[in-house]
Specification:
The chain has helices at about 20-50, 85-90, 95-110; strands at about 1-5, 10, 65, 70-75, 80. The protein has three helices and five strands.
């Protein structure tokens, strides 16, 4: 028995009865097709997960909090603010405004291309 789309071939001769052999071959073919589909889904999920998760390098940092220099740096937009205690207390307006401007610029660049 051959599954033409995938090329999986199943040969089954356990019984003397051709009907029983055919039923057993169908079961084996279904199991192999299920395993194939499952492995494809696992590979897709794995690649999607790897693309979402970084490797933890220092170059992947989003923000640095430098207490001795009283500085917060956002590495995505290369903005440094020198008011770390105020930032930690919720005074983030300057950073959020700069991030909004950056997001709009990126959106505009995406529309142009």
């Amino acid at each position: 028995m051959t599954h033409i789309p995938t090329g999986i071939v199943v040969i089954q001769q356990d019984q003397k009865s051709q009907i029983k052999n055919k039923e057993k071959a169908w079961q084996v073919l279904r199991a192999r097709l299920f395993d194939l589909k499952q492995s494809q889904l696992d590979a897709e999920r794995s690649s999607a997960r790897k693309s979402m998760v970084g490797n933890g390098d220092r170059s992947e940092k989003i923000r640095t909090y430098n207490y001795p220099q009283d500085r917060v740096t956002d590495h995505r937009i290369n903005l440094s603010l020198h008011n770390l205690p105020g930032f930690m207390m919720g005074n983030m307006d300057d950073m959020l405004d700069a991030l909004n401007v950056y997001a709009k610029e990126e959106e505009f660049k995406a529309l142009e291309s």
